[in-house]
Specification:
This protein has about 130 residues and is of the alpha+beta class. The model has no long low-confidence stretch (mean pLDDT about 90). Helix 2 (about 75-95) links the parallel strand 3 (about 45-60) and strand 4. The longest helix is centred in the first third of the chain and has 19 residues, at about 5-20. The protein has a five-stranded mixed beta sheet, with helices on both faces. About 30% of the residues lie in helices and about 35% in strands. The N and C termini lie far apart (about 35 Å). The chain has a single domain (about 5-125), classed as Trna Endonuclease, Chain: A, domain 1 (3-Layer(aba) Sandwich). The relative contact order is 0.22.
């Protein structure tokens, strides 16, 4: 497996654990459509949350503020469109009513590759217009 794929999987697992510790119920992971994939679909506060996970490696957590590329920088406009379309497909395919509230969140994961520990910052209700 390529290193970036391995970092991505580690990041998704760290994010999933973080979300569960913070009261999210995980509905699905790696939901695939023809347009793309949603990393984590969860529910919290009667709202469906579509969570895109972006991860970066760090030597130690004290360097987070000085990084040149942060996880959120990797959410491109093209990827954003795919997440939105895939979220709408999920809602339609699962028969979710129009009254159900939903949003897209971004889990920014910083991974210390030596210790395999991670820090997660959840950006809620992201709007990349």
């Amino acid at each position: 497996m390529a290193e970036h794929n391995e970092i991505g999987k580690i990041g998704e697992n760290i994010a999933k654990t973080f979300l569960m510790k913070h009261g999210f119920s995980i509905l699905e992971t790696n939901y695939r459509t023809h347009f793309g994939e949603i990393d984590i679909i969860a529910r919290k506060d009667n709202k469906i949350r579509f969570i895109e996970v972006k991860s970066v490696k760090v030597r130690d957590f004290s360097s987070i503020d000085t990084l040149h590329v942060k996880p959120e920088d990797n959410l491109t406009g093209e990827k954003w469109k795919k997440v939105v379309i895939s979220s709408e497909i999920y809602l339609r395919n699962r028969g979710v009513t129009h009254e159900t509230r939903w949003q897209i969140d971004l889990a920014c994961v910083y991974i210390n590759t030596e210790t395999r520990e991670g820090k997660v910052y959840l950006l809620e209700n992201v709007n990349k217009e």
